[in-house]
């Protein structure tokens, strides 16, 4: 049988006050209950810890030896409970997010600013990576939350749709396509294309459209970063098909955009979490805030204003 924290506190209180009466008052325990706690503690350690006499209570040599250890154990217990309470109350902790660059730049900053105002002592780490890497980080529990497209492999993760992004034609200022209210994919593909990496979810969606239309694109250049694609378009090297949310990664100078149609290609974006286990208190608070901000983002999409600067909806 192991000593309880209650027994240790009883032992330390009696040692400090030299009296069962004063110790019972300090601990708000009856004297019989205090005596029972000490008796059980002595049974656990296998010997007497106090000498009782008419002059009071004194520690035995073994009791004096044990007192610093008992104080340390109580201190560790109180500190552990305090640390745990701070975690549950979100006064400390850490959260790791994995997000598509589109979401990391176009949605997440406002969410994190709001989160930081509410929970300033929570450390935040963000991985802005490709969709497959988001899934891997969450599946391996190296990230608490992912923000991405729906994973192709869903065995170890759960996907919660939040918003539907859409594709836009990005063209240099003065381009003929900007004279149209919407741009058919077939019209966009008549011009040289600045493409993004074949490993990206954006490129996978574009390839699906090409297959559906039985068309090929005149790939002028392939780049890894959406921001680079935007600057190449601005320089007049070609046009691009990009998610509307990606405009937070692009300098708007020298370019314009129009919604792509025929076909309309929605891109479902959402939360990815591990399918097993419960999120921490810090992660739960982040999930609630992401959902809150996503509701305002959906309003923007419905109003056709997705490429405007996102101000968020946090209180």
TrEMBL record:
CDD domains: PBP2_LTTR_like_4. It holds the Pfam family LysR_substrate. Residues 3-60 form the HTH lysR-type domain. The keyword Nucleus does not apply. GO terms for cellular component: cytosol. Belongs to the LysR transcriptional regulatory family. This is Transcriptional regulator.
């Amino acid at each position: 049988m192991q000593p309880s924290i209650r027994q240790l506190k009883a032992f330390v209180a009696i040692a400090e006050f030299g009296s069962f009466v004063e110790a019972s008052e300090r601990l708000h325990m009856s004297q019989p209950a205090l005596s029972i706690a000490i008796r059980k503690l002595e049974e656990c350690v296998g010997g007497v810890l106090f000498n009782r006499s008419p002059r009071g209570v004194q520690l035995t040599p073994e009791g004096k030896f044990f007192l610093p250890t008992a104080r340390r154990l109580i201190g560790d217990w109180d500190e552990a409970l305090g640390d745990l309470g701070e975690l549950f109350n979100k006064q400390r902790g850490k959260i790791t997010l994995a997000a598509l660059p589109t979401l990391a730049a176009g949605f997440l900053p406002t969410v994190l600013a709001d989160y930081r105002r509410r929970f300033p002592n929570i450390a935040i780490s963000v991985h802005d990576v490709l969709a497959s890497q988001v899934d891997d980080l969450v599946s391996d529990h190296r990230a608490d939350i992912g923000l991405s497209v729906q994973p192709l492999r869903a065995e170890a993760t759960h996907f919660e749709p939040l918003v539907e992004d859409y594709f836009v034609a990005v063209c240099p200022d003065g381009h003929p396509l900007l004279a149209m209210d919407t741009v058919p994919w077939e019209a966009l593909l008549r011009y040289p294309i600045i493409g993004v990496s074949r490993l990206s979810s954006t490129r996978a969606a574009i390839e699906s459209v090409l297959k559906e239309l039985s068309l090929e694109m005149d790939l002028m250049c392939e780049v890894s970063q959406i921001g680079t694609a935007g600057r190449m378009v601005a320089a007049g090297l070609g046009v691009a098909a990009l998610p509307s949310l990606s405009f937070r990664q692009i300098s708007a100078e020298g370019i314009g955009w129009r919604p792509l149609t025929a076909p309309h290609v929605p891109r479902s974006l959402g939360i990815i979490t591990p399918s097993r286990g419960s999120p921490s208190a810090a992660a739960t608070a982040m999930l609630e805030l992401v959902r809150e901000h996503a509701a305002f983002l959906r309003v923007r999409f419905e109003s056709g204003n997705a490429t405007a600067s996102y101000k968020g909806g946090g209180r």
